[in-house]
Write a structure and sequence with these properties.
Layout lengths: L1 E5 L2 E3 L5 E8 L7 E7 L6 E7 L4 E3 L7 E6 L4 E6 L8 E8 L5 E3 L3 E5 L2
Amino acid sequence: VQLQASGGGLVQPGGSLRLSCVVSGSIVSVSVMGWYRQAPGKQRELVADKLRGGGIYYTDSVKGRFTISRDNTKNSVDLQMNNLKPEDTAVYYCSAVTPIGNRYWGQGTLVTVSS
């Protein structure tokens, strides 16, 4: 099973980026797909995730700015990030969890918000 993430980069404060992640390989079903991030010197934190059935979670600091979307037929998940702030700078990782609790990680994509 592989998760291929893309879409990171350098953006000015107030700008937007869209992250995408696709799951490939021998996986039948994915229960939860989401995005985590890890800033320098900090622990990895959950940014947003979406259940197969539709339930969504956002960490407080991104509510109203980030939107997670998911395509169950493609086992893909996107994260639209608007009004980015310097504190959003981090390596972003996509994650997929199967119905039996196996978690898989993408390779990480760097998002840098700086003027």
